[in-house]
Specification:
- This protein has helices at 13-28, 53-64, 85-95, 106-116, 130-144, 161-173, 189-192, 206-210, 230-236, 244-249, 270-275, 277-298, and strands at 42-47, 68-73, 98-102, 120-122, 151-155, 176-180, 200-203, 215-218, 255-258.
- Helix 2 links the parallel strand 1 (42-47) and strand 2.
- The strands form 2 sheets. A 5-stranded parallel β-sheet has the order 7-6-5-8-9. Strands 2-1-3-4 form a 4-stranded parallel β-sheet, with helices on both faces.
- By secondary structure, it is α/β, with parallel strands linked by helices.
- The protein is globular, with a radius of gyration of 19 Å.
- Helix 1 packs across helix 6, helix 1 packs across helix 12 and helix 5 (130-144) packs across helix 12 (277-298).
- It binds phosphoric acid mono(formamide)ester and norvaline.
Amino acid sequence: MIKHFLSIESQTGEELTNLLTLSTKIKADRDNPSERPLCGQTWALIFSKPSTRTRVSFEVGIRELGGSVIFLSQNDIQLGRGEPIIDTARVLGRMVHGTVIRTFAQLDVEKFAEYGLIPTINALTDEEHPCQILADLLTILEKRGSLNDLIVCFVGDGNNNVARSWIWAAERLGFELRIAAPGNYRPDASLLARLTNRKIIVTDDPIAGADRADVLYTDVWVSMGFENESTERLRELESFQINEQLVARAASGALVLHCLPAYRGKEITEETLEKHAKTIFDQAENRLHAQKAILSHVRK
Ligand code: CP
Ligand code: NVA
């Protein structure tokens, strides 16, 4: 059966744990890898949104695993002129060994996987950013030693792709997750209704959310594709910022994480970002190691 990595929701807790174990091993063996599982393979990256970390980490990761990469911006291929995703998938599926897709609709990534019949990885949709959350969990595991008794507080737009992947991670792995978000930016009620982990809570009080948390996490207030809502988002999310006052409420030695890119003075202050820069850029580096684990796991 062809394996894909389309969302955190579609993973089991055991699969996530195994991917974290593999990420740790791949990171440790980076300079002396025991195998190159993508040897002889060519992978395509199809990106319809900008990217620094995801693009570079996948390009480097595929090469380090022995494969070759073709980067395809939506505007360079017929997809940008309206060729259906299912036809793009059927063509690429005859030529490349796997695809990494960054786009808007989750359904497009799912359709690609269904019609391309090659391993397909979600590199961010409006729905989820699963590769990011695997790297984030790896970072927490490294810094904290385990994910046991973990309390994570996500501060900001609680209905965006990163927040949603955090929710599914907490659902699958059972840790405590507090989403601190104003009313219009709460996770969808229909999503919350599907959860069984009673330790996933939503609050409109960031101070209550941060109380004794082990991890404070934030993301941009204006996600890609939502630029037309910038004015109201900046206004409504103004008090959902990670700053020194909020960090003081968290557990002593709490980790501050940011998926990046960061907008200083918006979702995080310059002071807090710089104080936690070592962790935040370790987190960015972990995209490479976690995605090499994902690639190794799904490859044909
Ligand atoms: N965090 C993240 O996905 O960054 P990029 O948009 O630069 O890929
Ligand atoms: N929520 C952000 C994540 C960026 C990596 C976005 O979708 O733009």
